[in-house]
Amino acid sequence: MTREQYILATQQNSLPRTEHPQFYPVGIYGWRKRCLYFFVLLLLVTMIVNLAMTIWILKVMNFTVDGMGNLRVTKKGIRLEGISEFLLPLYVKEIHSRKDSPLVLQSDRNVTVNARNHMGQLTGQLTVGADAVEAQCKRFEVRASDSGRVLFSADEDEIVIGADRLKVTGTEGAVFGHSVETPHIRAEPSQDLKLESPTRSLVMEAPRGVQVNAAAGDLKATCRKELHLQSTEGEVSSASNVLHL
């Protein structure tokens, strides 16, 4: 190869090519691009709807920093204002009303208060129904509000009435199926005291004697067959103005 041929060959290799290069498109085009825009638009609409629903719920439920609706969270616990309804069980340690208003528990069927031990076993139950008020416990007590003295208590063994006076206002009086132990029986002022046994005998016993006294009236003992006055260790004494029949 001559020098001229070498120079000509090198010049031809250094010249730029005049051929057009091939370009390949990069990206999403056609129906894929339209579907992507549709999903982006749907996601945006969903976010806007969720935000609007959240704002509406916050406004309707009256959410605040202290709580929501009638419910307020305070340092002493939870405070409910107005009427509140609970559809599921409520577990609390203490329920009390305001000082100027009563506490009302209302139900369409009945109101039941249960007490359980640490093992979850039922130890006491109070049911307020339409027909009756039932209490199931080992011991039931009613105490005075001022002194705390027991006014009434009941258990399996005995019933204790701690009031100063037991008053029965029924027209038929008080009916006892078994014996009655009491130190004093008296009637109301200006009223008659009547002890009656229609079909059986009436027995009054005391270890130190039985005293029947009518301070301002007559004393009358009536029986169908015989009237017995008996003293096992002493004598039966009579006053001067006794009429013997």
Describe the structure concisely:
With 245 residues, this protein is of the alpha+beta class.
Question: Can you give a write-up of this model?
Answer:
The protein has 245 residues and is an alpha+beta fold. It has two helices and nine strands, in the order H-H-E-E-E-E-E-E-E-E-E. The chain has helices at residues 3-14, 31-60, and strands spanning 67-68, 71-74, 77-80, 111-116, 122-128, 133-136, 140-143, 150-154, 159-161. The chain has a three-stranded antiparallel beta sheet, with no helix packed on it. The chain has a three-stranded antiparallel beta sheet with strand order 4-5-6, with no helix packed on it. Strand 5 and strand 6 (133-136) form a beta hairpin. The longest helix has 30 residues, at 31-60.
**Which sheet architecture does the biggest sheet show?**
3 strands, antiparallel
Percent of residues in β-strands: 15-25%
How many distinct beta strands?
9
Low-confidence stretches: none
- From the N-terminal CA to the C-terminal CA, the straight-line distance is 182 Å
Report the average pLDDT across residues.
79
Percent of residues in helical segments?
Answer: 10-25%
Main sheet: which strands, in order across? 1-2-3
Q: State Rg.
A: 49 Å
Order of helices and strands: HHEEEEEEEEE
Number of helices: 2
Q: Find the structural class using helix and strand composition.
A: alpha+beta
Shape: rod-shaped
